[in-house]
Amino acid sequence: MKILIADDSRVMRQIVTRTLRQAGFDGHDLIEASDGKETLDKAQDEKPDLIISDWNMPEMTGVEVLRKLRAAGNNVKFGFVTSECTQEMQDEAQAAGSLFFIVKPFTAEQFDEVFSPILG
Question: Which InterPro entries match (predicted)?
Fold first, then answer.
């Protein structure tokens, strides 16, 4: 499975990658994007199976990326790993088509719980 990890922080992308491995999700093809526009471009060009996105990114927020993908008919599995966690944001994410909303800091156990149904 190809997974796109989108976050403007290189360190956070590395932490997400490490946590995926700690949760037992090795062997997937991981690609990265450092802003919203790059995320949208890679979602269209690389055709990932899953996008794990930060909410706040330069160029375009994660939810804007999600809305653009859905408007274009792209139904890639998409969710958020973010430090922002108001109920309004979670509702907005869900309304846009998000599958999950993980709040930082997170654990490998949370990743296992959220990603097991998605990654198998």
Answer: CheY-like_superfamily, Sig_transdc_resp-reg_receiver, ST_Response_Regulator
Extract the runs of DSSP E, i.e. beta strands, from 1-120. Answer: 2-6, 29-33, 50-53, 77-82, 101-103
Name the nearest CA neighbour of 12 among 59, 57, 49, 70. Answer: 57
Domain count, the chain: 1
**Containing structural domain, residue 28:** 2-116
Task: Give pLDDT, residue 84.
Answer: 81
Q: What's the token pair of residue 17?
A: 């990658």
Query: What per-residue string of b and e applies to 79-110 under the rule 16 or more CB within 10 Å gives b?
Result: bbbbebeeeebbebbeebbbbbbbeeebeeeb
Band of residue 107 on the pLDDT scale cut at 50, 70, 90: very high
Query: Length of the chain in residues, anyone?
Result: 120
CATH number at residue 96: 3.40.50.2300
Query: How far is 69 from 51, CA to CA, in rounded Å?
Result: 11
46/120 Cα distance (integer angstroms): 21
